[in-house]
Amino acid sequence: MTQATQKTWFITGASSGLGRAMTEQLLERGDCVAATLRRPERLDELKTRYGDRLWVAAMDVTDTAAIRATVGGAFAELGRIDVVVSNAGYGLFGAGEELTDEQIHHQLETNLIGSIQLIRAVLPHLREQGGGRIIQVSSEGGQIAYPNFSLYHASKWGIEGFVESVAQEVASFGIAITLAEPGPTATNFAAGLVSPAPMAVYDKTPAGDVRRAVANGTFGGLSDSDKVARAMIDSVDFVPAPKRQVYGSEAWQRIGDAYRERLADLVSQRTVAASTDADA
């Protein structure tokens, strides 16, 4: 682990949740932040307090042209950006059959395509400056799956696959990417869930069980949002960069259980796998 020094960060989705917590902590410790969000006025108080150390721009991650223009403007005005945090996103909550076509498209455009296009937009700038770090906010839901979160999981499993590949492509340029995987965290994530009209046929299924657990606040143990934000900030001081970091002891346990189950299933398939090899 190296000694932390003053850095410049680019953070999407900085208006609330982990993005806001990271922005506040970074400014308080003396770093500079380029913060993007759909409603820039939400950071007026921080802008008044920190002045030029906070660069703010309106940006919707579903607008690829806007991503490229905003990223280009931030690098042009601020010079070197050390860390890019791809944080913007939300949860679509409902059984797969309940979701509308529009909801499906917007979930993937925001969480998956928006994250992909942000990373693609920053890579030329990071290459030109000789390297940098990217933190892609994923979720324990990028490694495991719950009923009623199918499209959210699709977006997170998808971005994890993209990052795993791209991280290998850009490592020789001095660019490292970490997947941040928090479990349920005390943010406004649950309040921001988008849900279709529920179908009564799912009431007595696992989808209905999860719906009720979310409604009554018993879905998963919550991590502290400030602690998660701090751990994400601290992750950039580790060399080499961690490929993944899990936040929350319950999330760690659930992901571990899923790994063990998958490995046992894989081992059981060895004979079948070998039976399909081409003849010598």
UniProtKB/TrEMBL annotation:
User: What's the protein name?
Assistant: SDR family oxidoreductase
* Superkingdom of origin: Bacteria
Q: Which Pfam families match?
A: adh_short (PF00106)
Q: Which UniProt keywords apply?
A: Oxidoreductase
Please name the NCBIfam families in this protein's record.
PRK06482.1 (NF005065)
Similarity field: Belongs to the short-chain dehydrogenases/reductases (SDR) family.
* Coiled coil (residue ranges): none
What species does this protein belong to? Modicisalibacter luteus
